[in-house]
Structure formats: structure tokens, C-alpha cells
User: Which sequence fits this backbone?
């Protein structure tokens, strides 16, 4: 679906700000920037490994917003926090431009509070995608090595902080996130294989175990531009991607239908069919990670549900998800509403209202993870 952890307009503004403010230039080793000594990671608390959340623009929250999120999310039993590591923002203007600062701050804070970070290494700067200002254009083949180097720098930096799960791109089967048309061959051979090798090289050098997840797939029809998630996964296997993912990323949205609904297009109830493709390719022992999932309460927009239904469905979703033996975490999108416009569904996926008031779904989420 067309959701953004980093909205394109704001992302462009962030890139512009970073360039104007002055990125670190000619850094001989971006991995050795100083850490924030006030957020030394501690041993994680016991949490539910099925529980995850996707808080929008986490690295750019104010101190108050970040501290509020940490305090509130500690009230749940959730373990994972999914966030972007956008290449286009961290290395915006060339191989020697680096801006890890906001991401260091967020990851230091999350790990210090015992959460597991699930980074999405994703999106591409203009200098590596053929000159497009839209960072949803993927790296060109000649910049595959630069993609590898970027992923490796991220892994070198954050695996020592306890980041042991890595997702490679967001929804590469729809043109909202892979332009100009989706291309499973390019995704597998440029992004997935090189990204996997980069993370694993870092993990091996550090003697750590990590899980690399293929980019979570969205609802779509195969129409010459977008690719149906089942077709896309089959394509990954056809391109030899089996050995380059430890888990399959899946976005099991089904709004406004119940997670139990058997309507043909429901990605939630498509999960067993996704797993069957894995079984057919000798991959049945791997997990399906639901790296993004939710319901919006923008009832003026197609697909919206009431706040009561949102709470009901979150309870049912986690119950059903836990019954499948081949599923990993299920990450709820979003933590808090992004606004109050009932005509904009993107503003209404939160467990809380824009002013911080709990929706019924907040307590339902807490209860589901007990």
C-alpha cells in the first residue's frame, strides 16, 4: 500500500536540510563516528518477539516526542521497532557524504530501553540511481557496489549495538517504492543479493548472528507496473534469491476486512499461500515476518474502520498470526496518528490520536502481546 515511513516530500526536505547544513565530508571511515555516551545499551527486557511497531519518522522526533514514545511503548510487551535507514538521507550527495547522526540517536535510545531495532535499508540517492531526485528509483547496476558498501557501513555500525534483523527495501513490488516499474530481477540481483552479502560479511567479522529479511511486499496486481506479491516472491526464487534471505518480508494488510476474512485479495489470509511458495522452493523452514500491518480509522476514506473495529481487529490479528508456526514478528503501523484529517487515511493508522490520546486499539495492542 502507499504508505511512507519517510514521506517523499518531507524526505526531500530532509535531504535539502542535510546538504545545506553540511554533511561530514571526506570521512575516511563513517563507521567510527562518536556514539552518544548517555544511551549505552542495556540488556533487553523480556518482551514478546511477535510484537513490533512502525513509528513514522522516529529519527526526527523531538527529544520530547522520542522520550514519550519510549515511555509509552515500554508499557507494551512489544520487542521490535521498525524504522528506515534511507540511503538517500544518510549518504545524500556522494560516496563521501555521511549523516548517521539522527539514526545513531534513535538506535542508541531504542537499544538502551531494551527494544530490538528492525532497520529497513532502503531508497537511493540521485548520484546512484541515474540522477533522479525521487529516491524510489533503485540503484543502477554500476552502483551495485555502492549499495553494498552503504549496507555494509550500516551493518558495521549497528550490529555491535544489537541490531540483528535487517530488511532490504520497502515494498519493492509496487511503483510507489520502486520506479519507474517494478523489476524483480533487478531487486533480487542488485538489492537483495548485495545487501545480504554486505550484512553477512559484517556479521561474520563481528561473530554475530543476524537475520536478513526480503523487502516486505504490498498488495498489488501484476499489471506491467506493479507485481502481485506471490508473483514477486516466485520471481525472487527464479532469480536465485533463496540463499540471500533468512526470512520473507510480508505486509499482510486487509483493511477494511477482518483478519479472518477469506476474501481473495486479503494479504493476511494470503500468508499460508506465501508460505506454500516457500515450501515449494525448499524454504519452508524459514519464517514470514509481517514487517508492516495495520488498520486506519479515516472513516471518510475507502478502507477505513471505526476505532472499535480497529481494536477488535488488532486483537484478532495477533491471535491468528501466533497460530501459524511459520510466522515471525508482526509490526503494527502506526504508533500515533499523523494528523486529524479524516479524508487522509495516511494520517489515521495510529494506536493513538494525533494529540496523544489513546484509541481503544492501544489497550488492545497491549493485551494482545501479554
Assistant:
Amino acid at each position: 500500500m502507499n504508505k511512507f515511513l519517510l514521506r517523499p516530500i518531507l524526505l526531500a526536505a530532509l535531504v535539502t536540510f542535510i546538504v545545506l547544513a553540511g554533511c561530514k565530508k571526506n570521512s575516511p571511515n563513517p563507521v567510527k563516528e562518536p556514539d552518544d555516551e548517555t544511551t549505552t545499551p542495556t540488556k533487553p527486557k523480556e518482551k514478546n518477539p511477535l510484537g513490533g511497531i512502525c513509528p513514522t519518522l522516529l529519527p526526527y522526533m523531538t527529544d520530547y516526542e522520542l522520550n514519550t514514545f519510549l515511555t509509552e511503548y515500554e508499557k507494551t510487551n512489544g520487542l521490535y521497532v521498525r524504522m528506515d535507514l534511507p540511503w538517500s538521507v544518510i549518504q545524500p550527495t556522494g560516496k563521501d557524504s555521511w549523516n548517521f547522526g539522527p539514526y545513531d540517536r534513535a538506535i542508541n535510545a531504542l537499544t538502551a530501553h531494551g527494544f530490538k531495532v528492525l532497520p529497513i535499508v532502503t531508497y537511493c540517492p540521485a548520484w546512484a540511481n541515474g540522477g533522479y531526485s525521487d529516491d524510489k528509483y533503485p540503484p543502477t547496476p554500476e552502483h551495485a557496489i555502492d549499495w553494498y558498501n552503504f549496507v555494509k557501513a550500516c551493518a558495521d555500525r549497528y550490529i555491535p549495538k544489537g541490531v540483528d534483523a535487517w530488511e532490504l527495501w520497502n515494498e519493492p513490488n509496487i511503483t510507489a517504492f520502486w520506479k519507474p516499474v517494478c523489476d524483480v530481477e533487478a531487486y533480487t540481483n542488485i538489492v537483495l543479493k548485495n545487501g545480504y552479502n554486505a550484512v553477512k560479511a559484517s556479521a561474520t567479522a563481528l561473530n554475530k548472528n543476524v537475520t536478513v529479511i526480503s523487502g516486505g511486499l504490498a498488495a498489488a496486481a501484476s499489471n506491467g507496473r506493479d507485481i502481485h506479491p506471490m508473483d514477486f516472491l516466485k520471481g525472487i526464487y527464479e532469480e536465485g534469491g533463496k540463499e540471500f534471505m533468512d526470512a520473507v518480508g510480508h505486509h499482510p494488510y486487509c483493511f477494511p476486512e477482518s483478519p479472518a476474512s477469506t476474501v481473495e485479495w486479503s494479504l493476511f489470509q494470503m500468508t499460508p499461500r506465501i508460505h506454500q511458495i516457500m515450501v515449494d522452493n525448499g524454504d519452508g523452514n524459514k519464517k514470514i515476518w509481517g514487517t508492516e500491518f495495520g488498520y486506519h480509522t479515516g472513516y471518510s476514506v475507502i478502507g477505513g474502520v471505526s476505532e472499535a473495529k480497529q481494536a477488535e481487529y488488532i486483537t484478532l490479528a495477533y491471535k491468528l498470526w501466533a497460530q501459524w508456526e511459520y510466522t515471525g514478528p508482526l509490526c503494527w503501523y502506526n504508533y500515533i496518528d499523523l494528523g486529524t484529517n479524516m479524508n487522509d487515511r495516511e494520517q489515521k493508522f495510529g494506536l493513538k490520536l494525533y494529540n496523544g490520546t489513546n484509541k481503544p486499539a492501544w489497550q488492545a495492542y497491549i493485551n494482545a502481546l501479554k
User: Anything to note?
Assistant: Residues 1-44 have pLDDT under 50 and may be disordered. Residues 49-368 form a domain with the TIM Barrel fold (CATH 3.20.20.80).
